[in-house]
Amino acid sequence: MMVPHWNSMLPLNLHSVLFGFVAVFGFVAALFLLSILLPGKTLQGVQLKDGTRVSYKLNGFLMLLLTAAVLLGGQFSGLINLAALVHHFWGLVVAANVLSFGATFWLYARGVRAGDSHDDEKPTVSVSPSGEAVASKPSLMSAVKGLYYGVTLNPSLFGIDLKMFSYRPSLIGLWVMNTSFAAYQFEQEGELSTAMMLYQAFTSIYVMNYFQFEYGMLFTWDIVAEKFGWMLVWGDYAFVPFVYCIVGYYLPDRTEPLSLPASILLPLLFACGLWIFRGANQQKDEFKRDPSVKIWGKPAETIGGRILVSGFWGIGRKLNYTGEIMVYLSFTLLVGTTSVIPYLLPAWLISLLVHRAYRDDKKCREKYGALWEAYCARAKFKMFPFVY
161, 177, 292: which is closest to 232 by C-alpha? Predict the structure, then answer.
């Protein structure tokens, strides 16, 4: 019987913290360098309020493949031991949080110096006795909101948009952490369980599909409207890589065979969820780029020429959220009854996306007015038929 891998995680000591800092900061720095050096298609984002557009070089998929090749090649050759990430887990968490908070304060200070504000209101400017213009200092509450929500919409460094870039260490980091749990189980058992193999397949396909669809991120709310503060920074660098792999925490301890029904139904749940999630997002992205596009073999149908009602969008108003929940539920069910804790991930995602669907519905109702009412009459539910 394998010793529960929680016991293999080293206590938080100086060695573990140093390992975490080298691994996390080195990983992010390497990906940032690759963002500059690797080739990629350059696309323009949506037009912003000031009339400008941000250029994005999309090379995340190539970056993922290169990272996977280096790490897996190193693992199989014995030059790298990915299981060490499990042993030094808490050191990695500390380093990721230090990076997140440090980056947040740096972004805030940089934005304030540039005259940015979290609420799009420019700070009051007064004239000093020497005749210099001096911006007023933000209030404590304004500073807290600025740190949390951010003050700059599209901060960049060396020509790289930092908000778009941060999805790369976030999701590639998630893939690396998931892979480390497989390396740990193989180190202990000499083989991978069926549940672990399915988990690795599901999560790898999910991350790869994201980067294949990286261009679609240019039209998402986070990129278009959210400023880059602690909420997104901490989510990208600490929360997603070290919490979204919560299922992986428990799978090394589940070595019993997966039942035949589960081995069939869970891949179907994953495939169906991914089809709805990515399919809905891609339909909307293609429509925004070309309103004459065909969806499911027919010309795109709209309400008022503005709201798409073809494909998934004619069935439900936020089926992309429903599909994402199905994907994460397929991950979690692989744990079975080992622990209730992994089920906190889909529970968290449901609460997050239900609230986001409510906010999106409110925003669209204000933006489209009667057109939105007509759309709601066509697509009668948001996420769950007859429920929500």
Answer: 161
